[in-house]
Amino acid sequence: MEAAPFACSSCPSSSASFLPSFPVTARSLSSSSSLLFRRNNFRRNCNYYAAKFKSPRNLSVRASGDSVVTLLDYGAGNVRSVRNAIRYLGFDIKDVQTPEDILKADRLIFPGVGAFAAAMDVLNKRGMAEALCTYIEKDRPFLGICLGLQLLFESSEENGPVNGLGLIPGVVGRFDSSNGYRVPHIGWNALQIKTDSEILDDIGNHHVYFVHSYRAMPSDVNKEWVSSTCNYGVDFIASVRRGNVHAVQFHPEKSGDVGLSILRRFLYPKSTIMTKPTEGKASKLAKRVIACLDVRTNDEGDLVVTKGDQYDVREHTKENEVRNLGKPVELAGQYYKDGADEVTFLNITGFRDFPLGDLPMLQVLRYTSENVFVPLTVGGGIRDFTDANGRHYTSLEVASEYFRSGADKISIGSDAVYAAEEYLRTGVKTGKSSLEQISRVYGNQAVVVSIDPRRVYLKNPNDVEFKAVRLTKSGPNGEEYAWYQCTLFVNKVNGGREGRPIGAYELAKAVEELGAGEILLNCIDCDGQGKGFDIDLIKLISDAVNIPVIASSGAGATDHFSEVFMKTSASAALAAGIFHRKEVPLQSVKEHLSKEGIEVRI
Ligand code: 1PR
Asked: Which residues sit opposite 306 in a β-bridge?
């Protein structure tokens, strides 16, 4: 095989007309003489891109002194949470505008977002790839996050092969879902510490948050770099370190207090007392416990957290007011402190009206993301809209505004039903549905599909064309079977839900193919009832798809959480009412699961 470029492997695939393309092999990385040649070649081509394309306009935050960190945000996605975490830790941010800003940085954080090829393309076009290589080779303080780690490698298979910066030997590949592991890898894992990584010194057995479909593998050629690994079917590289250069595959800015402590160690080097690294232990992917806040405007116009009984959110009183269980920002902050692994907001006002007009909801996200350092999901109203002035907004624009305001994932309900129905009818992926468009731009790990099915009892499973299950507990008239009919919101005055000609099973499989990264599986029959999750439904869906499934609706006791994790392959369990009414503290759910031998984030 042809030798691969080492430090010069960052030229994008679009550069094929100017450069020879080199197949990449790990073997090729040991020769230092060819390294020099490739490095020069790399520089020539980077200069070409730098000359051809102008730098973006200056948007930097004015900051000075020691407490400034330089942030490389090339505008491909949402890095708001990284900014929030840096500011929370007392640092100002200076944004990179030109390659010189990288070279002049005292401390550089590179939170890679989006797809590998697109990121390399931008870095090359703006002349930043060259500057990054120089900065890192000079052993200047650097922290790469997620894609910011992957880009340091020679190449990636993501829509590729695509050349990376080539500083670390190895190829970034996709997780294999054929061995039963769900892809994307979403959730909390503990690490296996390999060397003194400094920033991970006090991590011990604590879990950190991952969300990715691609990973780099440890091997003989890159072992000098690997500071920790994580196991998800295979051992993959969780972090690298060489001198002052660090990069992590997980998201410290979304890993709660542990993540903040990792960032703090990078920002305040050698300021901590502990110097001896603590051992990490092998871990499975922890089961997640998610707090959900259904948010809507009440009749007085205030945005409140509400909670339905089988989706009816009004009190059964003469006034028939919207049930008010608290304020969204406060409650989200409380659940974060209580140990929620994620917080989900479902904006059930937004889907009636134009969601970008729902400024309070966007404010809720902005404020929450300033203090809540675990993943935030927001759903409601993600579809194309035309506002009162006739201006058309695409679902992508709606989602982008949610991401910009602090969401890590968006959740699509009604629009995903339409998309799945059309896909099943035509067999064609048009690429035009909200689901396809948003996952193409932000990655499927950022797109959740919320399914809202209700049980339809059957005497005979062959009575319908949809997948039916044999029920563990028979129906009101002794029916032994049911299918789960998907519903969506219809814009009636009383806000009803309409049953659609598609089952939850068919929908789940279709949306997985269309690009959903995760399924939030509700059940209208169980919602707010406190009698436990619908195990039959959750087993049906979690066995049918290879993406993570979040079990939702019906939690009333800690046992219900262990039951759903023991009897189904759900990756997470979500609850609302029991947390809002303070019937079951979130921490006691975690303690119970731990006692039952189910791994949870500690
Ligand atoms: O259709 O894209 O606009 O999204 C609307 C979103 O709002 C969907 O995710 C849909 O599930 C949600 N939604 C619509 N109407 C309601 C309602 O309650 N009237 N909330 C609603 C759904 C269900 C759960 C709930 C769990 C756990 N809430 O998320 O939090 O059932 O509750 P529990 O633990 O108390 O049993 P679109």
From this structure: 294
